[in-house]
Amino acid sequence: MQNAQVTADGARIRWVELPGRPGTSRTRVYLHGLGASSGPYFTASAVHPLLADSRSLLMDLLGFGISDRPTDFGYTLEEHADAVAAALKTADAYDSDVVAHSMGGAVAIVLAARHPQLVARLVLVDANLDPVAPDPARPGSSGLARYTEEEFLAGGLEEVRDRVGPHWWATMRLAGPEALHRTAVHLARGTTPTMRELLLDLKIPRTYLRPRDNGPLPGEESLIENGVRVVAVPDCGHNIMLDNPEAFAKETASAVNA
Fold it and tell me: How far are the Cα atoms of 103, 141, 224, 232, 237 from residue 215, in angstroms, in the given order?
C-alpha cells in the first residue's frame, strides 16, 4: 500500500499499486465511485490479461476506502481532483490513463481539465456529467444530497444504509460520513462549467462506457460529434466492471491502446 500527503494538514490518500509487466513505462489510475473503493471494484480488471501490462494505481479518494477521512475538507469535485493530483505527482504518475467510475469519473474530468500534464487518456465508466436535483427516491448522490449535513449525521446515514443494500454498504461504510455527504452534495450540484462541458473541451482521447440496456445517454450525439467514443456495453448495469468484466476489459484496453 502506497500513500501521499495531499493537504496542508497532513491528510493522506492511499492506493494499492500493481507493477505491471517488466519494463513498462505506462501508468493506469483507477478511481472509484461514490461510497466505493478502488480495490474491490477494480482489482480484477487491473490484473486482467488485457490490462495487466501497465503499472496500476488503485486509488481511494480522500474520505473513502483506505484513505484518510478529514472532517475539515470541503470535498468539492475540484478539491478531490487537486488531492488526486498531489498523490499522482508523489507517485510520479504523469501522462496516465485514468479509468474512473461514476462519481470518480466526474473527478477525473476535473482532474484532466485542471492538471492536464497528469492525464493522457480518459475512460469514463457510466460517469456523472450533469447536475441533478436532490431526489429521495434515488439511492445515489441525489438521494444523499436531499439531507442537510446535520440531518445526514443525525440519522440520514442509517436511512441510506437501509436503502442501498449490503453490496454497496460494504464499501460505503468505510467512508467518512461528512466526506460521503459533502461529496454527494457537490456531485449533485456539479461544476462550473459542467463536467459535460469540461469533457467536451478536453483534447485527449476520451471514451465513455455505458450499459447498453440503459439506452443512449442524454446528449450522446453531441459527445460523439465532439470526439468522445461512446461504447454501449451489453449485459451489465451501473457497475460495468463487476457485471461484465470481460467486456469491460476488452473495451477499456481498446480505449487506452487506441
Answer: 20, 21, 15, 8, 11
- pLDDT tens sequence across 74-106: 999 999 999 999 999 999 999 999 999 999 999
Other CB atoms within 10 A of residue 1 CB? 10
- Range of 32's domain? 2-131+190-256
Residue type, 85: A
Q: What end-to-end distance do the CA atoms of the chain give, in Å?
A: 30
Q: Which domain CATH number covers 200?
A: 3.40.50.1820
Instruction: Quote the CA–CA distance of 134 and 26 in Å, as a whole number.
Output: 40
- pLDDT tens for each residue of 98-147: 999 999 999 999 999 999 999 999 999 999 999 988 776 676 787 899 99
The sheet with strand 96-101 has its strands ordered as 2-5, 12-18, 55-59, 27-31, 96-101, 119-125, 206-211, 228-233
Residue where the block lists cell 481498446: 254
Asked whether the CA dihedral 99, 64, 132, 232 is positive or negative, the reply is positive
Cβ proximity of 251 and 231 under 8 Å: yes
